[in-house]
Amino acid sequence: MKTLQKGDKVPEFSAKDQDGREVHWSDYRGKKVIVFFYPRASTPGCTAEACNLRDHYETFIERGYALLGVSADPQKKQLNFKEKYNLPFPLVADEDLTVIKTFGVWGPKKFMGKEFDGIHRTTFVMDENGVVTEVISKVNTKAHADQLL
Fold first, then answer.
1. Which of 1, 3, 50, 51 sits a CA distance of 20 to 30 A from 58?
2. Residue range 26-38, pLDDT digits in tens
3. pLDDT tens-digit profile of 60-108?
4. Residue 51 annotated among the catalytic residues of the structure
5. Contact (Cβ atoms closer than 8 angstroms) between residue 24 and residue 92
6. 3-state secondary structure of 147
7. Residue 27: CB partners within 8 Å, gap ≥ 6?
8. DSSP assignments along 74-110, one per residue
9. Per the residue annotation, which of 23, 33, 35, 46 is the catalytic one?
């Protein structure tokens, strides 16, 4: 599986958000978009990252960006995460890995000496034409907004 790179056009996809609503990539046509992939809702690193983006959300909006979070968590877990931390952006419940594989962020990982397949924490920035303008694979969860802004 190939990870999308700077200059690649994001292919069309659809998935459900935390409320069960269909999210289509075409819904974002004409908008600048930041899509951030995180391993698991409500874990310390993912919470730090999502809350850091939440705390700078108004700045992203002022600069014309829409935000979209994606993990393989079920819809209910995504909803709980969004509500508990008052996250103002949609969270995709990508249980079948459609979006995750579209962006190419699924693969082998190591954690505490164990190897397994999972989501590589990665953020993509796209322009109004759906073309990737930046890929951040070394995400600073506590200062991710600073990396983006």
1. 3
2. 999 999 999 999 9
3. 999 999 999 999 999 999 999 999 999 999 999 999 999 999 999 999 9
4. no
5. no
6. helix
7. none
8. -HHHHHHHHHHTT--S-EEE-TT-HHHHHHT-EEEEE
9. 46
